[in-house]
Write a structure and sequence with these properties.
The chain has 13 helices and 12 strands. It has about 400 residues and is α/β, with parallel strands linked by helices. The chain has a 7-stranded mixed sheet with strand order 2-8-7-6-5-3-4, with helices on both faces.
């Protein structure tokens, strides 16, 4: 019995590296160790009061019954209004599906589109769950490595040369988790024109970090008419509204595909949480204005962390334009050691920094970029400063 009884699909699935590191650091903290965790993608702000009040009202109004599989109509209308107002996207309410977080929206899309043997293109670095969800559906991940010198962005030419008759889907995020990269309107337009030549290839645009964008260029690839019918836009409230625990995400796309997503969701979870949905109507109607202060804090922290990390010998980093991560190249430390530890890769480096510096980071290997590590700066300035002091001290021991 035991592991041998588990299905092949679960045995082949890799545990989420971000969640694993978060659990490990939490366990050390519970033992009394002063661990600084910069491993998880979670804003350290509280949900805005106006959204919390909407949830309390929903409780008082007895929104305690099962919800429609695809989400409350008023919430889908609020999403449609938001997409039109902020993203220049026209979607009807039957082209929108609400899920238990953007993660569920993504797996719904993948299971609706990908057959065993279909290829799915992933520019690397990519969010850890994309590749596991693709493999779970029987798809074949086609990873395109990118370079720090190009701010970890895939070029139209690289994308074009990777598309085959088997390519069913392309998945990317902008702003990107883990690199913080933001694709410009010009770059997305070029990609849209290229992918539009392949009518059986779709794009999943993950825009969950949309509000944490430090540029003046926030473009949804679905806003280009040439590609709109081939795009599924995924978003949610977790990052922009500091609502990670509320678990509400959504997908917008062609009605035939959204219907399929609802069909899958109806057999797994049914509709998302009723109270959270009602609160999200208020969140989406309020829009970006409630997160302006958070964005300003993240920008300040980005600048602080970039300067601190740049000051550590051996670390190579760029300056990301969104999200709340740095994704430096740490390959110069590979092959170095202390008296009892040898660093062979980014995994080893993260384990070393956790034990020696008591700082939790995530290896880039899980994101398809094995020379890098992901550092979340969703913490207070003084915490980030202390973390960098510890990291610099520990890395200086490696010879």
């Amino acid at each position: 019995m035991g592991n041998s009884s588990l299905s092949q699909r679960v045995q082949e699935m890799t545990e989420s590296a971000t969640i694993a590191m978060s659990q490990k650091s939490r366990a050390m903290t519970e033992k009394g160790l002063d661990v600084i965790s910069l491993s998880i993608g979670q804003p350290d702000f509280n949900t805005p009061d106006i959204i919390k009040e909407a949830a309390k009202t929903a409780i008082d109004e007895n929104y305690s019954k099962y919800t429609p599989v695809g989400g409350f109509l008023p919430l889908r209308q609020a999403i449609a209004d938001k997409l039109k107002r902020e993203n220049n996207l026209e979607y009807s309410t039957d082209e929108i599906s609400v899920s238990t977080g953007a993660k569920q929206a993504i797996i719904n899309v993948i299971l609706s589109l990908v057959n065993p043997g279909d290829e799915v293109i992933l520019p690397a670095p990519f969010w850890v769950s994309y590749i596991e969800q693709i493999k779970f559906a029987g798809g074949i991940p086609v990873v395109i490595p990118t370079k720090i010198e190009n701010n970890f962005k895939v070029t139209t030419e690289e994308l074009s040369s990777s598309i085959t008759h088997k390519t069913k889907l392309i998945i990317y995020s902008s702003p990107c988790n883990p690199s913080g990269s933001v694709y410009t309107s010009k770059e997305l337009n070029s990609i849209a024109i290229e992918v539009a030549k392949h009518k059986n290839t779709f794009i999943l645009s993950d825009e969950i970090y949309e509000y944490i964008n430090f540029t003046n260029d926030s473009t949804s690839i679905a806003s280009f008419p040439v590609i709109k019918e081939q795009v599924i836009t995924v978003n949610g409230v977790a990052k922009g509204f500091a609502m990670t625990g509320w678990r509400i995400g959504y997908a917008a796309g062609p009605s035939w595909l959204i219907k399929a997503c609802n069909k899958i969701q109806g057999q797994f979870t049914s509709g998302a949480n009723s109270i959270a949905q009602r609160a999200c109507i208020t969140a989406l109607n309020e829009g970006e204005k409630v997160s302006i202060q958070m964005k300003a804090s993240f920008l300040r922290r980005r600048n602080l962390m970039h300067d601190l990390i740049q000051g550590i010998p051996g670390i190579k980093t760029n300056k990301p334009n969104g999200a709340f991560y740095l994704f430096p190249d740490v390959s110069s430390f590979f092959g170095k050691s202390t008296s009892d530890t040898t660093i062979s890769n980014a995994n080893d480096l993260c384990e070393y920094l956790l034990s020696d510096a008591l700082v939790a980071l995530v290896s880039g290997a899980a994101f398809g970029a094995p020379n890098c590590i992901r550092i979340s700066y969703a913490s207070a300035d003084e915490v980030l400063t202390e973390a960098c002091i510890r990291i610099k001290k520990s890395l200086s021991k490696l010879k």
